[in-house]
Amino acid sequence: xxxxxLPITRTQSTGMRKFIYMRVVFPDRLDEFQTEAEAWAACxxxxxxxxxxxYGRCAFIGTVTPTLVLPRxxxxxxxxxxxxxxxxxxMNDSREAARAAGFPADDYQHFVCIYSGGxxxxxxxxxxxxxxxxxxxxxxxxxxHEFGHNVGVWHSNYWNTSGAxxxxxxxxxxxxxxxxxxxSSGSGGHFNASMKEQLLWLTPEVYHTAQxxxxxxxxxxxxxxxxxxRFYGLRVAKDADRDYWVEFRQRHSTNPWYHNGxxxxxxxxxxxxx
Length: 274
What we know:
Layout: E1 2-3, E2 15-25, H1 36-53, E3 58-64, E4 68-69, H2 74-84, H3 88-100, E5 110-114, E6 124-127, E7 132-135, H4 140-151, E8 155-156, E9 158-160, E10 171-173, H5 193-198, E11 208-209, E12 234-237, E13 243-247, H6 256-260, E14 263-266, E15 272-273
Parallel strand pairs: 1-6, 2-3, 2-4, 2-5, 5-7, 8-15, 11-12
Antiparallel strand pairs: 6-7, 9-10, 12-13, 13-14
């Protein structure tokens, strides 16, 4: 689940960003959840993913700490979380333990603590347009998803019309986009075109904005590079507040409809993209 408030902003989504990956254990539960080698591999996958997703506009550099021992018991953190609903103590204590080990907070924009057990039933938690990520899963997809919240987006959803018109009455199904890591964290898929525009990864010179009926050619959105003179999405005004976004995907699916046709997304409505 994300935490934070709208509106979406773009201050976290471009340029070089540094994060510290803190592997923490409780003093009464010292079993290591993830090895240092596994942690470095996860960080490498994350940095490659965002480098590719953003067409080189967002780059992460990660630092993995040794295993850090938190100052309070597992039971203390669980009781505090159940009472206050805040996971801040475990993050604050992780940052202090990292500082004491020689990793000052001022060196980083993002802070990840990963642990087994402890408070919360989630696999991951990320602050939207913030710098904090909590992981209780070693899934790289969960890591990527939570950093998606950090750079500024919510969830990629699905508009369920029960078989009727895709633009007609329906229900917003959270996490419903099966090819977008912000919908299905295990998919490994790129953010959708609407989110890429929000994050300044798709800029006006590389997507069409339709003003009139016509024929518009778009190229594969989920690729590594952008080529000059090509367009990677089509933006069509829906109403005064929202747009339709047409995109073309080629990866992370064997569905022939994706490979041979366009998909349509709506720009954000509430906490996601339908």
